[in-house]
Amino acid sequence: MCHRVSLNVRRRYLPRDVLVGRRLRGGVRDDTPESGDYDAPLRRVLLTYGRSHLPAFLLGGVASACSIALELLPSYLLGLAIDVFFTDARPFALPLVPDAWLPTAVRAQFGLLVGVAFACYLGAAGLAWINSWAWNHFAQHLQHAVRTAAYRTMQDLELAFFEGTQTGELMSVLNNDVNQLEEFLTTSLHNAMRIVTRVVVIGAIMLWLNWQLALVSLAVVPILVAVSVVFVRRIQPKYGAVREQVGSLNARLENNLGGIETVKAYTNEAFENDRVASASGSYLDRQWDAIRVRIAFFPVVRAITATGYTVTFLLGGWWVLFGPPFVFTEPLSAGVLVTFLLYSRRFRYPMRRVGEVLDDYQYASAAAARIVDVEERRPRLPEVDDAVDLVDPEGRVTYEHVSFAYPGSDGRVLEDVSFAVAPGDFVGVVGPTGAGKTTLLKLLLRFYEVDAGAVRIDGHDVRDLTRTSLRDAIGYVSQEPYLFHGTVAENIRYGREDADRAAVVEAAKRAGAHEFVTDLPDGYDTVVGERGVKLSGGQRQRLAIARALVTDPELFVLDEATSHVDNETETVIRRQLAELTADRTTFAIAHRLSTVRDADTILVFDDGQLVEHGTHEELLAQDGLYADLWAVQVGSVEDLPARFASPEAMD
Ligand SMILES: Nc1ncnc2c1ncn2[C@@H]1O[C@H](COP(=O)(O)OP(=O)(O)OP(=O)(O)O)[C@@H](O)[C@H]1O
């Protein structure tokens, strides 16, 4: 038993527990109630997702109750057998069966009793199977429905939500919280059923057999419930402390292992060992504190049930031997006493589970509250009702007095930005780090919404376009492209599912990736590892470009798409891209100015403002920020402007 309990407890201390009682921060939403403020979240989740499987749930409940009740009957039959066959204290009779149907010969009566007891056990086993099948069916389908619905809701949320919420927290909801519900349904609910059914059935049989002795034997039930409630109240804050410490320990381990390269580079292994040992030591202290209370609970329950058993034995034995003691008046036979004693022992097991069931209920409610919290979220950037599709755009892009600040942050990242780009233009976007270049182009994809002004494609405000048609029209290669665990071909095909091998290879050639891909052990079928760890930064970028090219988009947005590629490869890619982007509007953010030197227009940003624009030559002639940046890059040090001359000057 202890094994089951300790496993159970350990399960709860997995990372999800870091979240118990906390809602997803999400960073950007302050209009939802706190977690747990929802009305009966557990009931809501069960009704919403379990409704279509309700018959299975009810069937399981009935089967569970009947199975537990049947298991209790043989103890009654044993008492009856003693009274009928050994002490002759009772006539042979079975409850609910007319006497006329019963045999009169002792052998037949004895055989019938043994047969009924056997049938009870067999029936209980069969019903237990039905219960397991039905409740697992219910729980597994509910788990699937909740997880997929929560995931769907998350997918519709805006980027800012994911930026404001730790991935671990989202994973916790999708995995641990959902699993918690499943476990509650299959294990705890069954235990709850077991407790209630046993108490009700045993109580009913005892009261029917001898209501006076029953009152004595059943007196332990309220005592056990009270002790369990006290236990739960005492252990709960200790569990909370352990959970909190698990969070710190996990964060410490994650940080350490995630940054193992840096740890090694600075030979800080001993320092990290100390930090982990200290976090683990705190965990040990808190865990031990909880264990001390937990292990005291079970002996107390045993002692109470043992006392109840002893009192029943002492009083009942006296009663059988010398007649009713004290105020008691009912007759009591040896067989009935045996039934009472067998039942008294049966209280112990379910009652020690009371604390666990209450505990699990709270966990499941907290898990349900967090699931509801996700479900209640609505996209902050929904499509308008009459959103139109962007069909075959020419690629005219205009920014009209665009201003933008990230949700939840104070300062504006873009301030009154206006420009227009003709269809098919190649536009370079340059400026010092943090100037707002990436943000500018994320607004084109409507990852965020402008605070003022408008971003238009072919005259359509991007807010009036369907999200799918807008993003399908734009091939986007981000600064740190993400590759999924899978093969090279699968990663390129991610842009267009139905792309055949020829299209994949063609895209890779244009992105300058074909050569290195064919050098990989399995060519296009080489698995790139999680996040593409088995590839170099430049190789990852080229695959990301190929992924954008395979979709054949009308516009391109390349955010530092070749920053990790050597100069020669970049020249090759640029030539290929120039051909490909000749008639498609292309935005290319670049720190390496040679990348955008030939652009039709170069937009120069500084501190969220468009400070210059023009061709390379025009901008050099202006002798402003662009000319300064260019001077830095071509290495004419004597021309280095003051702002780049010393680090202090750059601040
Ligand atoms: N998701 C975000 N939430 C809040 N602030 C952000 C977010 N992303 C960027 N910022 C802030 O917005 C500003 C502009 O960032 P942005 O990435 O657009 O600059 P950038 O010009 O592309 O820089 P770099 O050349 O270094 O990539 C920075 O001050 C940055 O800290």
From TrEMBL:
Protein topology in the membrane: Multi-pass membrane protein
UniProt xrefs under Pfam families: ABC_membrane, ABC_tran
Keyword Transmembrane helix attached: yes
Localisation: Cell membrane
Main location group: membrane
GO molecular function: ABC-type transporter activity; ATP binding; ATP hydrolysis activity
UniProt keyword ATP-binding present: yes
Superkingdom in the source lineage: Archaea
UniProt keyword terms in alphabetical order: ATP-binding, Cell membrane, Membrane, Nucleotide-binding, Transmembrane, Transmembrane helix, Transport
Gene3D superfamilies, alphabetized: ABC transporter type 1, transmembrane domain, P-loop containing nucleotide triphosphate hydrolases
Residue ranges annotated for the ABC transmembrane type-1 domain, each copy included: 58-362
Domain ABC transporter: 397-632
A single Gene Ontology CC term: plasma membrane
Transmembrane segments: 56-86, 106-130, 192-209, 215-233, 295-320, 326-343
Family matches, as SMART domains: AAA
Protein name, UniProt field: ABC transporter ATP-binding protein
Organism of provenance: Haloplanus aerogenes
